[in-house]
Amino acid sequence: MTGWQALASPRFLVSSWPWRAYLYLFTSVPVGLVTICVLIGLAATSAVLSPIVIGILLLPVFPLTGVVIGRAERWRAGLMLLDGIKSPHAVTPVSLTLREKLKFRRREQASMRELGYGFLLGLLVWPFSAAVAGISATALGITLVSPILADTEEVGMGPWTLDTVGEGLLFAVTFGPVFYVVSSYLVGVLAAAEASLAKAMLGPRQEELQRNVAELRRSRLDLVDAFETERARIERHLHDGVQQRLVGLTMTLGLAELDLPEGEGRRLVVKAHSEAEAALADLREAVRGIHPRVLIDLGLEAAIREVADRSPLPTSVSVTLDSRLPPPIEAAAYFVASEALSNVAKHAQARTCQVWGRREGDMLVLSVTDDGVGGATVGAGSGLTGLVTRLDALGGTLVVDSPPGGPTRLRMECPCRLGD
Amino acid sequence: MPTRRLSIVLAEDSLLLREGLASILDRAGHEVRDSVGDGDTLLAVVRKEPPDLVITDVRMPPGHSDEGLRAAAAIRAEFPTIGIVVLSQYVADAYLSSLLESTTGGIGYLLKDRVGHVAEFLESLDRVASGGTVVDPEVVRQLLSRRRNDGPLAALTPRELEVLGLMAEGRVNGAIAQQLVVSEAAVRKHVGNIFAKLQLDDGLDRRVSAVLTYLRG
């Protein structure tokens, strides 16, 4: 709710809004005074010190003062704008040092707007607010206490002179409500206008809002990227560490088999050997699910071919890409194909399946089509749900067209570049 | 045990596996002339004094991608008579194409797990050293599964498919007969049928690459 909406409401006079308006106008006085003192002080100091470079060095402090003013004033505007005013400042990356962060803030356009608002507040807004709110509060106050005043002395009220309690009471009852109504609306309008001014100057502009959206996408992308890096690290660790040791173990066991005579001991070593091989096969399968080596080494086409080869279903693959894509995109496409093929094998009762992939303009398009029973959805506990989120962060989409009775066609589209 | 003593250069960046391999080869009576940890050193060592056989990992420093494969291709170009066995942590038939291009034999592509089956592994080395081709059964399985719904392959009987797989692994008729517990004459008949159905030329020296080329489509 805003001050303007409150003014339009029939309950304005009996709500807390007139008092909020007074509070808003009166609190502008100390804030405005402090602001103008600081700004004039700063200006004077830098003028005095300008012959010795320090004064010039102080100039960058002005926009930062603007940032502080903006912050205080956005908070104060909460009195008149219940939703508050959003900060127009960009989020500074965590990695920056304090010095870099200050530099970043100083260069923002929003900081200069806030500084401008500071001057406006210090020079015009607070004196005007103080005058209007002061006069109307005084007028209202005197009207209400006029019976008491009239008891002790004669009080001149415009054309009338009140000299008894009765007359004072009559005056207060007659004019008190009128003054209350008039002054409340007057103060309300002024406060609402000032809050609107604050919002216009201290809130985010359209492009700043758009930038925030872009930042949000960027940070989601960073997350996907970090996720990808982490998977690659785990894969490498398993590949270079555990897997090598298991291979070493199978070699040693193989040698031991040669030396041992037929018998229980040899039988056990042979058993241990095949168990080590099974562990190796399991590990290889797990690594494939984390971050397939073929994908890293040879790209999407070869990796999807591999998945298709492992599928129990005859699967034809036609994926042609003229160049490698950024790793998060390749990984997303790979896992979409892999998940889709495993779903087809599990649920579709299909006889054949086709994977098709091309680059169409700036988009990577991948489709998986089967001749099964249909009725598939992205939700319904399929592993595709997580992939949709992942694609979303990359700016991509996943559509499943699967009428009952089939066929099922899954189509993935994803921009070929990150951060577009 | 080996038919002849081979001089071997070993390239593998994991110390653990390098030592494991060296001890297996040592025990088999082969001479491990050098063991190195990266592709460039491998090339340098081979150029200094060509060995009979090179065993190399696919992935090695500095890039940890396909340094071993590239070194293998370079060696093959310079010294066509040196047998080359490429070991891989996982199989991808995509690697196979770069190995089999422009070569008719003396090449092996094996999963590292196979090394543990010492007798078979040593036999594979002998075959490669004497100009044969050895392809990991896992790779062959992948290739067969890719082509299984194609017309000609669907025309093969299950037994013929088995024979085709063993042929693709690089086995000779005698070995196939032993493996399937049938007579060599029966294997020859199957091979004849396969080549007829797939319309391939049965030149014995080129048959592995013919089969693999066919399977790779």
From TrEMBL, chain B:
Pfam families for this protein: GerE, Response_reg
Family matches, as Gene3D superfamilies: 3.40.50.2300
Modification type 4-aspartylphosphate: residues: D57
Domain (Response regulatory) ranges: 7-127
One Gene Ontology MF term: DNA binding
Domain named HTH luxR-type: residues: 149-217
Keywords: DNA-binding, Phosphoprotein, Transcription, Transcription regulation
Protein name: Response regulator transcription factor
Species of provenance: Kribbella antibiotica
